[in-house]
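A reminder from the course coordinator: this example appears on the midterm review sheet, so study it carefully.

Given structure:
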């Protein structure tokens, strides 16, 4: 089995080019081995919608690390396996934009998988929103909180593997550069 870095980000505004929070759960050996969470100071404004959705505002992140400061901590984790997210196109896009905005060179491409795409193939006929899958599997969720969302996505990934999903069928390549 591969090592999966299941992550979720929250954003401060509609531009989705900065993070206000990140949750990471590392899955290996069919279990969650590491959980990590941090607020991120996005160094930009917050839209009312995003604050209402996540509960994160300027005061919440006032003393949080900026993305470049946090990157020194999370890069070893992010580099240690296959990235995974629920609706990965969104989270991967935010990561890509943060790296570009702060002129951080990482890699031109990364391997990733998406628990939404996996679910559409493995569980046809049901809704694949994170809260719907959590209800389906009986997974606790505090929705739009990066730590809870990343943990729930990791649990969903494990349920897919327990049901016999062949992980090689779902790994894709994402272009960062």
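Designed residues:
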């Amino acid at each position: 089995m591969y090592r999966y870095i299941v992550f979720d980000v929250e954003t401060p505004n509609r531009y989705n080019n900065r993070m206000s929070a990140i949750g990471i759960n590392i899955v290996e050996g069919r279990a969650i081995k590491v959980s990590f969470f941090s607020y991120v100071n996005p160094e930009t404004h917050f839209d009312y919608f995003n604050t209402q959705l996540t509960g994160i505002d300027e005061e919440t992140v006032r003393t949080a690390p900026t993305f470049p400061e946090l990157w020194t901590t999370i890069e070893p984790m992010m580099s240690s396996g296959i990235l995974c997210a629920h609706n990965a196109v969104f989270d991967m896009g935010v990561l890509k934009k943060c790296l570009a905005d702060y002129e951080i060179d990482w890699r031109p491409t990364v391997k990733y998988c998406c628990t939404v795409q996996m679910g559409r193939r493995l569980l046809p006929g049901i809704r694949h929103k994170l809260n719907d899958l959590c209800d389906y599997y009986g997974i606790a969720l505090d929705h739009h909180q990066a730590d809870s969302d990343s943990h729930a996505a990791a649990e969903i990934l494990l349920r897919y593997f327990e049901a016999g999903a062949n992980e090689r069928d779902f790994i894709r390549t994402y272009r960062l550069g």
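DSSP finds seven helices and six strands in the chain. The chain has a mean pLDDT of 97.
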